[in-house]
Request: fold
Amino acid sequence: MAYPNAVLASNEHVSTQCSEHDALIIIADDFSTLSNSPLQQAIAEQAAVDSRIFKQVTLLVIDNKRVIIAPTGPLTRDYDDVRRYFDVAKLAITEAKASGSVNPVIYIANKTNDSRYQYALEVAYLGACQALWQPLEAREFHGDAIEPITQIGLVDANPDTLNAVNAIAAGQYAARDLCGTEPERMAPPRFAQYCIDLFKDSSVAVDVIDDINAIDKDYPMLSTVARASYAVERHHPRVVKLEYVPQGEITRTLMFVGKGLVYDTGGADLKVGGYMAGMSRDKGGAASVAGFMKSVADFKPTGVKVVAYLAVVRNSIGSDCFVPDEIITSREGVRVRIGNTDAEGRLAMGDLLSEIKDLAKSQVNPTLFTVATLTGHAARAVGPYGAYVENGPARSAQVSRSIADCGDLWADGAEVSRSRREDYDFVKPRTLADDVLSSNNAASAVTARGHQFPMAFLAKVGGLDKHGNDSTQPLPYVHMDIAGSGVENGDWQHGKPTAASIASLFARYCL
Ligand SMILES: [Zn+2]
Reply:
């Protein structure tokens, strides 16, 4: 199992005479000014008899060499972004692989000075990696030969960013594995084992909590979600804790909680009408956090400490499943009225958020995150982007904006909104019997502020409502809902996982 390595290639490889690479992928918005004029002439001759060339991805054979022409389309309009390179690289590498290439090289011609495209080559490479990844179950059945491309040359790549893109690719690869795998192969104990193997002999320490009694005692809301899975030992929950401590001085601490629902049946509020298929991908948040840690482990950034807690659990249905109306007292001492058992991700993460918040108080310059495929509303509201909702201290520090701006440069976009009073009103208690309501009973996609109000719930059960700008110890907190961005084309059952938010977090905090 491996992602294709990015390696530096010189301009001399932009030639049909190159013996090292078996396919030359040329990406450009305009092909009229290639540096190699014999090559340009040969392409022009073929274009004279094939009008598809320069309009769509086409494979040419020139001097017995594969040359793949990959046009980006327009790049200058307000709404164009670097995904033009990401998307065309996916198509081009798919052509290269289908034609038998195992060692292609990517060249970007007619480079623009537009700052939107400053990482175009790196992004094209990451697009190629996205297209080449094959599901873990497929590799385990067919063998690694279904991923024949093990290396990709990048012409004139910046040597300073080569290590970084390899680290991002490694993290994204792991995240796709963790998110994209069926519920038995990636049941909680096996999810935890994947993490143990992933970080073996690395700079990231792994601690797995597998004792059900400890989970019942320390994480009562997570335990509530897991309850029905206790009947089946191989479905038992795990809490996976990851920690990276940099060499030298620490100037910033990133603290993540990831939602790792290896399967979400909805519980007693069962997903009916065909809405359950694809719910093995409800672990995408934990997968992205673990993937980000893999990028960190490989890159070893200085100054940044990273702590991550992953709630890895199955929301099953059975005679001991939790039901709406129950009141659960959380780790924070908050009495939580269950509104709907399909709103389980916020319960699974809430106690871990409370715990990591307590740890945050003693850390250097901490920022807290929850990362989750939380709501259908996020996908409905913002489409294929991350949906970030932040508290006052995070807003003051422009945390979400700065991550989303990095995302725009790395084909990993997000939209930012803020926590509002309506969100807190929405989850307020209706009687003295409880302190907070976990959810309403309509689909989030038809609920006003359906992806924002869960952040208010998380803030309350995580105790972060006591760490706003008005407190003596403000703690920046961003809730990242990746339900719309986590899988390609919003196809939860079949779309490839995108490893959403890894590239932007890495670009923001590690580059
Ligand atoms: Zn659910």
The chain has a mean pLDDT of 97.
